[in-house]
């Protein structure tokens, strides 16, 4: 099978765009295709968790994300047209040297995608719109995707990042088991509205005969995100008049307070996990692999981290000659994480747990991964498989050292490290607060892949999983 590109990415949501960026900066030819005529226009995935902020730092978009977003406002509960009390959505956590991003950052999804697309194009990548995949075949040499337009593309690998109703997943025959988290239809809309301040997330509890309503100012815009819950079996009216009626019935605001409708959608909160994340040369990522309740802001973040996990592995195999067994680890690492986060999202939605430390995703890791090698007999934190914390070593900030598509070796305390050349930078110096003395080989996605007190086993590990 001939090839038009190395990697075909189906879907230009946050997952596909993040993967496109990661491949582009590694010099891997990739094509991102999207069946719609443009980027997603709504705010739906508006919360960026601290771990994803670290990912965006590495991908070169953090400054742009921070410039257009803001912190979450304090919830304001209304009763009978009066302010009745405050509600904080997240437990407060102070930033620290090892975890500099301490709280979720609010950016409407449409704006996040604009920033990711701009970064992709800066690196020479493109998004081809109006490309709907209708057929997919593969053999030992590659993948062929046919579009509704009659065109076709061939690639060495393909990635389905085309959402919860993934066409590619269906073409592959991969099942997706799940459950309804909440049978009540939920309306989500981006609106312009008058009569509410932009300092609070306005919550209107259910009244007699009425359902829940929340109106949140979207940081960096003039818009509000409106969320309304409806009785089971009803169909929300997505028109401007329909939304005005909901606002008037459930709050003290007049219908004409809603001055503009910019986007609207309805959904039934659901949790589902694909049976597999890989079929031959095709991988599933993002909502194509797992669908979450929006509670806790986990879906977009887990999806971006799917891309971050897969990107360096595809690059290592396609450009650096790494063993193709590396690609098997994508499902082995990401599917358990997705299952764990799905459970968390569901518990948050049902009020069984708060939006706390777990929702920040800094504690997720890969200790049980086949890529993880912990050589020390008495390991302390961080262990191999854990996220590599930030810190300062001999005047070097670790996140600055990690930034880029390379591996990094930390030689802390009295640990002796070989000179690995320009391909793998070595940071030497006293161990910062989050580390114990020793050797830590940090993967390109910011997790400790190998840890030891001496170099025993390090060359063999790099020969198999690193650059050759």
Automatic annotation (TrEMBL):
<dbReference type="InterPro" id="IPR036188">
    <property type="entry name" value="FAD/NAD-bd_sf"/>
</dbReference>
<dbReference type="Pfam" id="PF21274">
    <property type="entry name" value="Rng_hyd_C"/>
</dbReference>
<keyword id="KW-0274">FAD</keyword>
<dbReference type="InterPro" id="IPR050641">
    <property type="entry name" value="RIFMO-like"/>
</dbReference>
<dbReference type="Pfam" id="PF01494">
    <property type="entry name" value="FAD_binding_3"/>
</dbReference>
<dbReference type="GO" id="GO:0071949">
    <property type="term" value="F:FAD binding"/>
</dbReference>
<protein>
    <submittedName>
        <fullName>2-polyprenyl-6-methoxyphenol hydroxylase-like FAD-dependent oxidoreductase</fullName>
    </submittedName>
</protein>
<dbReference type="InterPro" id="IPR002938">
    <property type="entry name" value="FAD-bd"/>
</dbReference>
<feature type="domain" description="FAD-binding">
    <location>
        <begin position="4"/>
        <end position="342"/>
    </location>
</feature>
<keyword id="KW-0285">Flavoprotein</keyword>
<dbReference type="GO" id="GO:0016709">
    <property type="term" value="F:oxidoreductase activity, acting on paired donors, with incorporation or reduction of molecular oxygen, NAD(P)H as one donor, and incorporation of one atom of oxygen"/>
</dbReference>
